Amino acid sequence: IDEIEALSSIYGEDWCVVDEDEKIYCIKINDCLDHPKWTLCLQVILPPGYPTAEPPIYQLNAPWLRGQDYVELANSLEEIYVQNLGESILYLWVEKIREVLIEKAQSSDPEPDIKKTSEEVDEGDGDDFLLDYQPVQEDPTKILNYITSESQEVDEELPSIHHGNPITDRRSTFQAHLAPVVTPRQVSR
After folding, report:
1. By its UniProt entry, which PROSITE patterns does this protein fall under (predicted)?
2. Residue range 2-23, pLDDT digits in tens
3. What pTM, to 2 d.p., does this model score?
């Protein structure tokens, strides 16, 4: 309880209580620049045994965080937990994530490549959103060839995932993720 109160006062509006009874919290972390390029949302669930016997259950949410970047950051958080067994670690996690974001901002990494597939439309009250949908024009023979070759290939390539910009509405953040699939196997993968 003391840790949650401290984090709430330290991080202010960036700290969000998702569900007080289930102890689910979310914090928006950025690279501390005037116009942040790199932002990440850390969602944590504090199990009954936290901090003495169980680690927090966490999820890292950012459209740019994939592959090796995700693995490295997750390993860093788990290492912090192991080094501080039995102690409150949420503050350490948030500051580690902020440190990674600052390093990315100061390095030569370009801004996150987020393909915008949805946009917020301001019509009066601002609660309406319009999905900017443009159907993909594919050659039907290409699709048919893909479907027939899919049954022959064991390691098929996953489709690219398009990420929309996060939209925040009343302390909730939403983000669309879309991928074109043509086989049931792609759906399950």
Report:
1. RWD
2. 888 888 888 888 888 888 788 8
3. 0.55
